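#struct-help
A.M.: can someone run this one for me? Single chain, 339 residues.
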Amino acid sequence: MNTNPNKQTPTNVEISQPPTDSVSELAFSSKANYLAAASWDNEVRIWEIQSNGSSVGKAAFSHQGPALCCAWSQDGGKVVSGGADKAGRMLDLATGQATQIAQHEGPIRCIRFVEAENSSPIVATAGWDKMLNYWDTRQQAPIAKVELPERAYAMDCNNPLLVVATAERKILIFDMASPTTPFQTIESPLRRQTRTVSCFLKKDGYAIGSIEGRVGIQYINPQQKDKIFSFKCHRDETTMKSILYSVNSISIHPVYGTFSTASNDCSFVFWDKDAKQRLKQYTELGAPITATAFNGDGKLFAYAHGYDWSQGYKGNVSSIKNTIMLHSVIDEDIRPKIR
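D.P.: on it. C-alpha cells below:
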C-alpha cells in the first residue's frame, strides 16, 4: 500500500470508569451511542456516549472468568458475550437482566448475532473446544452444531456471510442460508497465526490480520480474485532486524467501507483497500491497542489500551494503563480517496 503518513493526532477522550484489565473486544450498538467492552477482569460493561464525548456507565454484568468477546443485537437492545467460563451470556438493557444463553466445553472466544434482518435472533458462538454452535436465545440447547478443524480465534458475520478463523491458519466461510456446512475452507494467505477478521460492508469478502504485522484482503467470488492481496503494516523496519507487531483488531467503517487496523505498536491506522492506500495513521499513543470499534455513523472510533501478552509476563509493566479512548473521526481521514 502507498504510505503517506500524517501523525497529527486530534484530542481523544478517555472513557469514564474503564475496565481494570485488558479489553478483549469492543462493540458499538448500531442503533444508539452505546459502547460495550468485554475484558479480562471478568466484566462486560456498557456506556452511553454523550454528544460532547463524555461517557456514562449504563450497565454491567459478569462472567466467572475473563470475558473474551461481545456483540450487540440488531435492535440494539441486547448485548451478548462469551468467556473463559465456557458460558455465553446476554444482557437485556430494557430489564437489566443477564441470563446464560450458551454453553461450550471450552472457553467461548467469539460471539455474534447472525440472523437475517427482521428475523428471530440467532447467536453464533465459537470456542476453543473446536465447536461453532448456533443458539435460539429462548432455548437451552443449541439449534445446530458445527465441528471446526481447530480452536476458534476470530469470527465475524455480515449476514449472509459468516467467517470463522481458527488455529493452524484455517478459515471457514459460511453462507447463512446453509449455516452448518462451510462452502469454502481455505488456508489463510498470511503466514502466521490469525488474530482478527472483519467482514466487508458489501458482504463480498473480509479482511484478516495476523500476529506478524500483515493484513489480507480476501474476496469470496472467484471472479474477484484479481482484487485479493496482502500487505505489511505495524512494523518497525528502521533497524537492521525488522520488528513485527500483531494486528490485534480490524474494524470496518459503517459508511465508507474503509477500515482500521490497530496493534501492540501503540498505533492505529485507517486504510482504503480499494485504492490500496493508507489514509491516516496515529502513532505513539502510549500503550498497546487490544480492540477497536466504530460507532453506528462512523464518526466515533473507540480503541482500548492494555497489555496483549505478546511479550510474555515480562512485558506486563505497570506503566501500561487499561483504558478505552474515544476518538472523533474526521471525515477526510476515513473517506476513500477519489481516484
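A.M.: thanks! The chain is about 0% helix and 50% strand.
D.P.: also worth noting: Confidence is low (pLDDT under 50) at residues 2-10.
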